[in-house]
Specification:
Layout (H helix, E strand, L loop, with lengths): L4 H9 L37 E4 L2 E2 L4 E4 L2 E5 H4 L13 E3 L2 E5 H8 L1 E5 L4 E6 L11 E2 L1 E4 L1 E2 L10 E2 L1 H13 L3 E2 L14 E8 L3 H13 L3 E5 L13 H9 L3 E5 L12 H19 L5 E3 L7 H10 L2 E3 L6 E2 L10 E2 L6 H8 L1
Parallel strand pairs: 1-8, 10-14, 10-20, 11-12, 13-14, 14-15, 15-16, 17-18
Antiparallel strand pairs: 1-2, 3-4, 4-6, 5-6, 7-8, 9-19
The structure holds zinc ion.
Length: 348
């Protein structure tokens, strides 16, 4: 997903991370200097130039963009949780009081993302999760769920087997959860985490109906560079619908699915951050889990993952026990030919 120049300019001025990857930007005016309340002289305000989304919800206060900076109306901004009482930063424009978005985000510990449709997303930065230690949580790694086989066929579990596996888990008291539920793992009966890598369209056409039928949660790790790419990969609309359903957590599998191990810090950083921006733009939610493509990562990956995500997921065929390194979470690889008995042996 590419940002328009508008969004790129806006975001770069807000000192965001992925700027190094953007195209050359047009010159912009100097940002308005902001101190205590002051009157600034500016050209007439345009119609609201962008839509601000806060944690997935449309911000109903006024938003403007001028002088190379984005501003929101102060009265509404002060209703954002965590900002109540912050009255030190504001400017008056045409008799109305505004606060700059960049400073607003810094004050509230949130981050900004933009998309092609002049949406700016203001999202909670991932905070370190406090996860109770010593709980066994089997994490299962799937890819496609389909009988329309192409490429590496062992990656595609049949929809019939997928349903049989989920039905067995539900019938035997297991609770499919998200990684985001781990801080409360001590309150969950027999937790198990179902993950689906790469973002194949059958996750929507074949898997999603099964999840809805049984009311169980799953995590889809999307390679953002292939979203809307061809009939075999998920569309943005499908991702958004699954994310909004409350059953599917959409998380990052990087932007281009490279072997991260040995890549430069800059390249790795771009993969981790760009995929995060792409997913935030599609879902309105900031992903908190990174899944290393092909289980390939190195010390640099771990450092960057700690900076940008709450957890990092590997694929070494072992049980994950909470308290182990949250950036090297192990999973069991489930292949097309695996029997229900094999899956049961992993989970129990
Ligand atoms: Zn993959």
């Amino acid at each position: 997903m590419k940002f328009l120049k508008w969004a790129a300019a806006a975001l770069c001025l807000m000192s965001l991370t992925a700027c190094g990857q953007q195209e050359v930007l047009p010159p912009v005016e100097e940002p308005v200097s902001v101190q205590a309340v002051q009157e600034v002289s500016l050209p007439p305000l345009p119609e609201p130039a962008f839509t601000l989304m806060i944690e997935g919800s449309r911000f109903t206060g006024g938003c403007v963009y001028f002088g190379g900076k984005a501003f929101v109306e102060k009265a509404a901004a002060m209703e954002i949780p965590g900002l109540t009482g912050r009255t030190d930063l504001s400017v008056q424009v045409e008799g109305r009081e505004y606060v700059p978005l960049k400073e607003l985000c810094e004050a509230s510990g949130m981050t900004l993302h933009g998309d092609d449709d002049k949406h700016i997303y203001m999202l909670c930065a991932p905070r370190q999760w406090q996860i109770p230690e010593g709980f066994d949580v089997p994490v299962l790694m799937y890819h496609g769920v389909s009988n329309d086989l192409w490429g590496m066929t062992e990656l595609f579990v049949s929809p019939e087997n997928m349903e049989a596996q989920i039905a067995w888990m539900v019938d035997n008291g297991y609770t499919p959860i998200w990684f985001e539920d781990l801080p409360h793992v001590d309150e969950i009966e027999k937790p198990v985490i179902l993950t689906f890598d790469d973002g194949y369209m059958d996750n929507y056409t074949d898997l999603f109906p099964i999840l809805k039928k049984y009311g169980v949660k799953a995590t889809v790790f999307v390679v953002t560079g292939i979203v809307d790419y061809n009939p075999r990969t998920l569309t943005s609309a499908q991702i958004k619908e699954m994310s909004d359903s409350g059953l599917v957590s959409i998380q990052s599998h990087t932007a281009t699915h490279p072997y991260l191990r040995g890549m430069s810090r800059e390249q790795q950083s771009w993969e981790l951050v760009q995929s995060k921006l792409d997913l935030a733009a599609i879902t309105g939610k900031e992903p908190s889990v990174i899944c290393y493509p092909s289980g390939s990562y190195d010390e640099t990956t771990l450092e960057l993952s700690r900076e940008h995500y709450c957890m990092g997921i590997d694929m070494n065929g072992l049980m994950y026990t909470t308290g182990e390194d949250p950036y090297q979470v192990q999973r069991y690889y489930i292949r097309r030919q695996d029997t229900l008995g094999t899956i049961i042996s992993y989970i129990q």
